[in-house]
Structures
1.
Amino acid sequence: MKEHGSTISRRRFLKSTSGALAAASIAGPMIIPQHVFGANDRVRVAVLGVNGRGKNHIEGYMNLPNVEVVTLCDPDMKVLEKRAAEFETTYKKKVKLEQDLRNVYDDKSIDAVSIASTNHWHALSTIWACQAGKDVYVEKPGSHNVWEGRKMVEAAEKYDRIVQHGVQLRSSKALQEAVQLLRDGIIGRVYMARGLVFRWRADIGNKGTEPVPDGLNYDLWLGPAKERPFSRNLVHYNWHWHWDFGNGDVGNQGIHETDMCMWGLDVGLPEKITAMGGKFLWDDCKETPEVLTSTYLYPKEKKMIQFEVRHWNTNYEDGVKVGNIFYGDKGYML
């Protein structure tokens, strides 16, 4: 289809759809008129990683017109079967199941993939999707390290693909208005922003190694990570606390708060970063810090960011438990 009058190209629609998914959990999906596409011209999406955040992806896409989730992919077949049953109950249709994401990329009928897998899979999943000619929505953090992120950008440019990173706070109308108020000087010259993540994270113990449970393709779950014996503490959410797979709460929740700080301060990359933290609470097998404080310095702009993770019992900062505070020379904004 060509874009003119009341019609719109599939590619532009994909751009609009990715934005709508980002906003779905906080601002509601965008509305696309039914006449935009014909009955047989729908955007076909596969969701990769469906145990946690992927469930929200499924709901977000299925609430959009002219979009359909056609494939669910996860290395754990028990998770897949559970989501498939929920999908059929909710949407009165069946969905294709795949354990191996490479089969998804080989499927020429799929237009886009939505990646909600473990952090260490984000970059390679995105690059493979671009190579397969599919557009991408990828959860935060976009990559497991800086080098991977650069390769993702290169792949998107080389294969001319749409790749959107899941920092959905930017799709909130309320937050857009708040940032504009900061720009307009409501608290004067803004010089500092704080990102706070004060969350309870329980003791996960030391469960040790054991045989891989039935239904889990552990080789696919490990993917680009180094080989290691199976432990239940390495899968299904607790992977966040192991460096090979996650990034602790800095890469879990803190992506949103740090991005909000940068957005509100209107800054890019800092000149200097310092960080200090550690494990002070639990004698378990977590590897990432339970408590961490970091600062991002912008000497030319005369601005700074402070980001902090706290667990266990703590005071809140003016009522803020997870969120942001901006400081100006005439006041502050929560």
2.
Amino acid sequence: MDNLSHIKIKGFKSIKELDLEMKPINVLIGANGSGKSNFISVFEFLKYAVDDNIEKTELYVKQHGGSDAFLLFGSNITKKINIDINIQKHKYSLGFEVDYNKDVLTSTSIASNLENSYDNFIYFEKDIKSINTYHFHNTGKAVSFKKYQEKNDYAFLRSDAKNIAPFLYHIREKFNQEYRQIVQSIQTVAPYFHDFVLNLVGEKNDERILLRWQHKNDLDNDFSANQLSDGTARFICMATLFLQPKELRPKTIILDEPEIGLHPTAIAVLSEIIQTVANDGAQVIISTQSVELANYFEPDDFIIVDYENGESKFKRLNAQDLGDWIETYQVGEAWSEGLLGGEPKW
């Protein structure tokens, strides 16, 4: 697999030590506070930690609790974060330590299997940008994707979908087949939905777009994105993310708890979409606590996350772990019954 194939982590947040083989579909499942989100945040951290803009890196660390928040039990206990990661056939080993003068984490070492060590940072920055993390939890009235957006902000879908209107406009104009797939998937979940209304406003060099839509029973009027339910708005973001043209799509897509606010029908459609894009070369990493969503995936897709003795533990599941239970339970059901681990420890 040319995407993220293997990762080792030491000392990052609640992760004392992790060694995981990654697959086309990776479903992190476990209790609240087990460490699923900490694993996901590794990839956000790496993007900022190697950014040429030092001020941007410092701001990210400070906004997320300072350097101690990134080290297992703080810098008094953990002095360094080590991450080994294989991306696009490149193998990287990275180390990070605290700069006590600025309360930030700085990259102290980076090694790779590249012939020219001077290319380490250049290639790593490129490779890590092929892994994108998304959070679509916030769908309130003030959220950015429901406001006017700059027409030219369409190169990629941003992590909170705040540029979804120009991104959809670009897809409609340049990749109409994929645009129709996005619309049709939304119609499966929201049968009243007819199409998006993506009209440009403003002067030629300052054009903007507002995300609006049509109801199939009233094509003479269009409606605000604020008139969509939270679940529908969230599904629109996810359908756009997963069904965007392959040329634009990240090689690895990471999404935290995609099931939030979704009707069971929408969960079924979403799981089918995830499996389709994974078969088309994308890699998907999701975290979930949804029995219903989990039931749609195979045992080998799962990573069971437990929190024991102050640290997160990650275990790749396989069909043998289910034993005879596989005849009776789907994976989500087996997890909810406490047969696989990943439940709260009292």
